[in-house]
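stuck on this chain:
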Amino acid sequence: MEEVEAVIQVLDANEDFVKLMSHPKISVEEKCSVLETVFHGRVSDELTGFFLTIEEKGRFKEIYQILSYFIDECREYKKIGVAHVTSAAALKEEQKEAVEKRLLETTKYESFVMNFEVDPSLIGGMKIRIGDRVVDSSIKTKLNNMAKSLSEIQLSN
């Protein structure tokens, strides 16, 4: 997993490499030769072979999605969750630790990769997203829900 994460960082720093590997006028053989030259001895033979297979199947333009999926599956296997926490104001370090501790207590994960963001439009509270699950306790959402409920009430004469 760490090796794949390092490759993603290298690919991010070298956008032209991905463009080269996706160029339709360069033959598959030439692209495979480039992959061998670039990665052989720098990453595991299995990963180099994997890149060659991806290229031979014509899927190198999807390399980011493929590698991200691999990392997600590794994290799931290792019981490492990824949490995206958005709050109205920046959280203090002890607040961040408390959020992570609470998530560890209430989920199946043994550790977390925590991503903290600030969105002042939330007014207060926070939103936490882990995978496709979202817990939204922001004041903005509560006010929107209240406004929706009030608009559905029929007024009688």
